[in-house]
Design brief:
InterPro entries: 2Fe-2S_ferredoxin-like_sf, 2Fe-2S_ferredoxin-type, 2Fe2S_fd_BS, Beta-grasp_dom_sf, Cbr1-like_FAD-bd_dom, FAD-bd_FR_type, FNR_nucleotide-bd, MRET. By secondary structure, the chain is of the alpha/beta class. Helix content is 19%, strand content 30%.
């Protein structure tokens, strides 16, 4: 569906809130807290679709709101939405997709957010509060100035919200292992995490190491996270005798498929494990959310992971 931009607002120096509505003002498809939409962006000859969490709880059927952090080293979507998009512009937008919602079996809900990962947590926390359910929210950012929705969270979730500022003095850091351990034996408690891959990884692996049951941990990620330090990667597919050079902005999965390899894949977010590949040399930079530490010693997910630029990645394909 084609939606119009009706409001934009800078929440921090590099996070922009964008409101989308039907041009004729008619209601939009409903959604549950934690849902996301796919937005078509003019980044090439055809529209490139990017996924963004909806920040509300779904109670307002007249608009969708997303908050987008500008990443100069990404694939261009966040730069376009922050720098080029204006009120009155129209974008192709999917109906909401629900893959990260409130666990019906949960008696207590622990929400963990890092940076822009706060976006789906806003609607989830709002719905939990309205329903009178037990919850707590832990939110980390570099500083108060980098923390989107800072004032609203303190106002709306006072007493249930703990904020962490990792680059202020003194630094306040979230102790993930302690938090997971505290809730490990509370069988009705569910954990939710969204944010940088490193935070999702820390929560997931801490839960795994502590014996917390996997169905009690829920996470949301939207695919590869690029780093300013990423360089050109050389890949040798040992069974196919193919040598590739892959530039940042193209995933290893995309490059290997373009070279003729057939690799099963599904989520392309490093969550399902369908594309897992084995390697015998090189140094993968693991950015998935599904492999254990033991598996990472010999396998990686090419849909999201990258590799060190100073050694050839030898892939058994």
């Amino acid at each position: 569906m084609l939606l119009r931009v009706t409001h934009v607002e800078m929440l921090t120096p590099n996070i922009r809130l964008i409101r989308l509505q039907n041009p004729d003002g008619s209601p939009l498809p409903s959604f549950k807290p934690g849902a996301h939409i796919e937005v078509g962006l003019p980044l090439g000859e055809a529209a490139a679709f990017r996924k963004y969490s909806l920040v509300s709880d779904g109670g307002d059927g007249t608009c969708y709101e997303i908050a987008v952090k500008r990443n100069a080293f990404g694939r261009g979507g966040s730069v376009f939405l922050n720098d080029a998009l204006s009120i009155g512009d129209e974008l192709e937008v999917s109906a909401p997709i629900n893959e990260f919602g409130i666990a019906s079996a949960g008696l207590h809900h622990v929400l963990i957010a890092g940076g822009i990962g706060i976006t789906p947590m806003l609607g989830i926390a709002s719905r939990l509060k309205q329903a009178g359910m037990s919850y707590e929210l832990h939110y980390a950012a570099m500083s108060r100035g980098d923390m989107a929705f800072h004032d609203a969270l303190l106002r709306d979730h006072a007493g249930r919200c703990t904020l962490y500022f990792t680059r202020e003095e003194p630094a306040q850091r979230l102790d993930v292992q302690a938090l997971v351990a505290h809730h490990r034996d509370h069988v009705g408690t569910h954990l939710y995490v969204c944010g940088p891959g490193s935070l999702i990884d820390e929560v997931r692996l801490s839960a795994e190491g502590s014996g917390l049951a996997r169905p009690r941990v829920h996470f949301e990620s939207f695919g590869p996270a690029w780093s300013a330090s990423d360089g050109t990667v050389r890949v040798t597919m040992t069974e196919s005798a193919l040598d590739l050079e892959v530039e940042p902005g193209t995933t290893l999965l995309e490059a290997m498929e373009a070279a003729g390899a057939w690799i099963p894949s599904d989520c392309k977010r490093g969550e399902c494990g369908a594309c897992i590949a084995s390697y015998t040399g090189g140094r993968p930079l693991h950015r998935d959310n599904c492999l254990t530490e033991a598996q990472r010693a010999h396998s990686f997910c090419p849909c999201v992971s990258w590799a060190s630029s100073d050694a050839v990645l030898l892939v058994q394909m």
